[in-house]
Structures are given as structure tokens and as C-alpha cells.
Amino acid sequence: MGVLMFDIGVNLTSSQFSKDRDDVVTRAQEAGVTGMLLTGTNLHESEQAQQLAQRYPGCWSTAGVHPHDSRSWSESVAAAIHHLALQPEVVAVGECGLDFNRNFSTPQEQERAFNAQLALAAELEMPVFLHCRDAHDRFMTLLKPWLDKLPGAVLHCFTGTRDELRTSLDRGLYIGITGWVCDERRGLELREMLPLIPAERLLLETDAPYLLPRDLSPKPASRRNEPLHLAHILARVAQWRGEEPQWLASVTDDNVKTLFGMTF
Fold first, then answer.
1. CA 230 from centre of chain
2. 186-215: buried (b, 16+ CB within 10 Å) or exposed (e) per residue?
3. pLDDT at 2
């Protein structure tokens, strides 16, 4: 089977997978992806992700509300996310955070939902699966008071600046790297920063079906990303960090187990 890998960010609930979800999982497994973390982005999708994690071996899920959906946060949603987070397949609270890029929910709605989910994670002693875009300073201000109350946190799909990376690492965050780093138009700065991330803080993800690596050849006709392409991301990240893919896969697998408390 070759290199064994864990994908910490798969949007398997996406409608883009509705017609061939079983095949997508099978292809990933055949490509050496031994585990996947299925992302919950609102209550409905968090429930779906948990059900899919029950269905497929080697899968776990997150439960939370993405900043885009923060306007949906309510007492009933909070109670439902709390209940969901207690299920054995759910290993992190999130995807939660701030996204001031498009503001599908207002900054005030986003901050309210983010704070509430940090409090929930602290109460349940669970790690958080974080999202931050164009909001780094405010994001860190809200996150910092909770960090010593949480068992861990990963900043998923990191695409920030060198200073933002340094701050995130100084705060003890794990860093999730996607195929964004394979994009010669917008990923070069991140590519240069890869060696700055300690191996014991690095996690790898596809964010499928999004962020198909631009340097993939041949590209799938669908232009849809799949977790099977994690092997390509691993190879590129290892190359640009000057490391062996097999070694890096082993280290990142260990990081997954440490952060999320999994065994696989």
C-alpha cells in the first residue's frame, strides 16, 4: 500500500460527493489514506458527518458551526452540538472561528458563535478545529484566553502570513496544510514557510472537494478534489521541507493521535 496517511479535513457531506461517496472513500483507502476527519460546518452537516463517520471505517468527525453559518447559532443549536460532541466518532469541536473575508454572518454573530464553541470545547475537554481568514488579530484575541483550558487546537487550511504563522505556533497551535501550497499563483509564500513549521505541529489535509492541487497531473475531469490526492500533497510538502514522505506521514499520523486522542 505504500505510505499511510491521515487526512484531517474532508468535507464528505458535500453534495459534490452525493453520487459516489462510497467510491471516494474506497479510492482514498486504496491510495493509502488510512484515516479521515470529516468536517462539520453547521448543525445539519455535523450530524451528517457523525453518521458518515459511523458508516466508514477509519473515519471520525467534528461538530461545530463555521463562521459563515454563525447567524444560525442559538441555544438549541448549542445544545445539539453539545449532544453530538459526546458521540464517540466526534473528536473535535468546530469548524469554528472567524472569517472577515466575506462576512456571510456579521462579525458580531461570528464572535458570539466562536466564543460559545470555545467554551463548549473547554467544558468537554475537547480540541478545536479552527478557521481563520482575514481576521487574525481578533481571532487570536478571542482564542488566547481559552488555550490553557483546551487539550489542543489546529488552525485548519492555514494560508496566512509569516507573522501569523509565528504567532500561531507561539500559541501552541497545530497547523493544517492543504493543496493551497501547490498553487503557483497564490501558494508560493506559504510554500516558503513550510520549513518553519515544526514537524510535530504539522497536519495534512485535502479540504476535499475544494482546493484541488493545481500542479496535479493529469487533473481529474471533474476538477473536484478527493482525499486520495493527499498522497500528492504529502509528497510536495515533504519535498519542499526536505524530508522523506514516509517519515513525514508517520510524524503527522502521530500528531493526529496526540491532538485528537485517536487510535488507528
1. 13
2. ebeebbebbeebeeebbbbbbbbbbbbbee
3. 57
